[in-house]
Write a structure and sequence with these properties.
The complex is a heterotrimer of chains A (about 50), B (about 240) and C (about 210).
Chain A: H1 3-48
Chain B: H1 3-6, H2 11-38, H3 52-79, H4 83-114, H5 123-143, H6 149-179, H7 194-235
Helix pairs in contact in B: 2-7, 3-4, 3-6, 3-7, 4-5, 4-6, 4-7, 5-6
Chain C: H1 2-22, H2 25-43, H3 50-70, H4 74-79, H5 82-87, H6 92-121, H7 127-152, H8 157-181, H9 186-211
Classes of the chains: A mainly alpha (about 50), B mainly alpha (about 240), C mainly alpha (about 210).
């Protein structure tokens, strides 16, 4: 691979990397939201006599 | 309490994310494919010019995000509807991410073109640095102010300042170039041949769709967060 | 219209009288700017160009302005007066205009000391530089006043004000330094005028959103 090609590939890899990092962040967020929602559902069931 | 009752899920929110994501996928794959397989190689810059199809759409998308954020900020100040605060915040959040990507890809392009990672003569990069600093301060403003109408309004006014800063800084960097930091290197070449322009447009459309899809997903996440918090308070 | 002007004058006069009696901000600004210029002398290696020295003058002006702006709403905060001002019948943008005039006066007074000190320590000034400083003062005061009000609402106001202020002041520095060193200062001075006009209007129009609870 020429030097040119290496840098061009690196630039496009940066975008790929950013998107994958974003996916990771969203995955963590969804997990946290699911846990919180489960907690709240349990809380509601207790409070309102599900 | 504002979210559960005041916000309605119209069709744009149900179908927006998947549609935009599909559009982004299609357009970016086709766009990059055209850029590498179909568009001719630049006579002067050679293969490294291919970064253009990545860097410039990202830069323009960042501007679009800041503009969108400023529009939502204006709507907030105009109508006082609280939902515009989250929308403005999310748009600027996206803008900063794309702005950071602009700086990184721009730096790589500078390195491969001229052998330096940074050049004060490259006007786009300098402009983006100023904007990146400005909008990063936006986050500082939000983090250090208590949530509430005060924070919403301050953020909105600051977002408007940002969008005014864009042309002012552009002009400033331009006149600075004539005297202070001579523009030795520049990517501003001659007009693009037809194939390059076509490939570029597809990439641009794809990048804007990507930003749109990410924006809607991020907004959804923030809204869910806020709704959950509201529920927690109601059940406590 | 004249009621508005009267409000603005009253607010500006109040700030200036307060400062004249308590004398805490202005002496600090004067001392700061002279100290900064002294530090700059030691920061510049021997044989540095006049252009570098001029650049540093602008840095001194920007940071002296920040020092003054940090105190812009301090008096109101300490006496809990800002809410009273906001509830008063006057247009809230009058608060901004009155404050900005006050800040501009402080800056000009600080520069009456700073510029001669610079001419003494480094090299003589040109009239373009003085004109640029005058124009820059207006822009700095305009945005600084609004940003100080914004930062006042936050928990970390001493940290936040410089962060909000510096990116916005970059064009002012470009215009100011350009006007000071360039062969053709006209376009830089015109740019400073444009900056002042654009941001003054924006600040004037948006100030009420920043101070209302």
């Amino acid at each position: 691979m020429t030097t040119s090609e290496k840098y061009v590939t690196a630039a496009y890899l940066v975008l790929l990397c950013a998107l994958l990092v974003y996916l990771l962040i969203i995955a963590l967020k969804v997990g946290r939201l699911e846990e919180e929602l489960a907690d709240l559902t349990r809380s509601a069931r207790e409070k309102l006599g599900g | 309490m504002w979210l559960l009752s005041e916000h309605s899920r119209g069709p744009s929110l149900r179908f927006g994310p998947p549609l935009l994501a599909a559009a982004a996928t299609g357009l970016l794959v086709v766009g990059f494919g055209l850029a590498f397989y179909w568009a001719p190689e630049d006579a002067d810059q050679g293969f490294s010019q291919k970064i253009f199809y990545l860097h410039v759409p990202i830069a323009l998308t960042a501007y679009a995000c800041f503009g969108w954020g400023a529009w939502k900020a204006l709507r907030l100040l105009w109508t006082g509807e609280r939902r515009y605060d989250l929308e403005s915040y999310t748009a600027i959040h996206m803008g900063v991410i794309f702005g950071l990507l602009t700086l990184i890809t721009g730096s790589i392009w500078a390195k491969v073109s001229w052998g330096v990672w940074w050049s004060w003569g490259e006007r786009q990069l300098v402009l983006f640095l100023i904007l990146f600093l400005f909008y990063s301060s936006y986050f500082m403003l939000r983090f250090s102010t208590e949530p509430g109408p005060r924070r919403e309004r301050n953020s909105a006014v600051y977002a408007l300042f940002g969008v005014v800063l864009i042309p002012v800084s552009f002009l400033a960097v331009r006149i600075a170039g004539t005297i202070l930091h001579p523009t030795i290197f520049t990517h501003e070449g001659a007009d693009l041949p037809g194939e390059m322009l076509a490939a570029f447009c597809v990439c641009l459309a794809g990048m804007l769709s990507l930003a749109g899809a990410l924006y809607l997903v991020e907004l959804s996440g923030k809204r869910i967060d806020a709704s959950l918090r509201e529920l927690k308070e109601l059940l406590a | 219209m004249s009621a508005y002007a009267a409000d603005v004058a009253a607010l500006a006069r109040k700030d200036l009288l307060l400062e004249f009696r308590s004398r805490d901000t202005l002496p600090a600004m004067l001392l700061f700017v002279v100290s900064a210029l002294t530090v700059f002398h030691f920061a510049l290696p021997g044989g540095s160009s006049e252009r570098a020295e001029t650049g540093l003058l602008w840095i001194a002006i920007v940071f002296t302005a920040l020092l003054g702006l940090a105190r812009a709403f301090a008096a109101e905060r300490e006496q809990g007066v800002l809410d009273g001002l906001v509830l008063a019948p006057s247009d809230r943008s009058a608060i901004w205009l009155g404050k900005t005039i006050g800040v501009t006066v402080f800056l000009v007074l600080a520069e009456l000391v700073a510029l001669p000190a610079f001419a003494l320590f480094f090299h003589p000034l040109s009239w373009e530089l003085v004109a640029a400083v005058a124009l820059a003062d207006l822009g700095i005061a305009a945005i600084g006043t609004l940003l100080a009000a914004m930062a006042a609402a936050s928990r970390a106001r001493e940290l936040l004000l410089p962060l909000l202020f510096l990116p916005l002041v970059i064009p002012v520095v470009i215009g100011g330094v350009g006007a000071s060193v360039a062969a053709e200062p006209g376009s830089f001075l015109a740019f400073l005028g444009l900056y002042d006009a654009v941001f003054a209007i924006l600040c004037w129009a948006s100030f009420e959103y920043v101070v209302t609870e």
